General stress protein (Paenibacillus agri), 116 residues
Amino acid sequence: MDSIGTGSYAKVVENGVQAIEEVNQLRSSGYSKEDIYVISHDQEREERIADIADSNEVGLSEEGLFGTMANLFRSRGDELRSKITSLGFNDAEADFYEKELDRGKVLVIARRARLI
């Protein structure tokens, strides 16, 4: 499932290699490192892919202090859904993407930086 709508784009891919390819395609279409996020159910895998692809990870600036602190006490599934919703997706979309992550897939999300 690809999603373009709320200002965010998401694509579920099968593995890290496809995630890196997707990040590269997004970068060539004008997205910057700060616009692209990689999410995996396995946190170490997520960090490796994000590092190799030179993409961003969801953190304090996306979730805010409360969301980041709350993640310390959440299950990994709840944490992932929180991260996905912080990037502009609704609860139903976050549930769908989290289930795909449970299956070992990788989620690549891109969004344009907000102007303040």
Remarks:
- Strands lie at 2-4, 8-13, 36-40, 106-111.
- The chain has one domain: 2-111.
- Residues 2-111 form one domain.
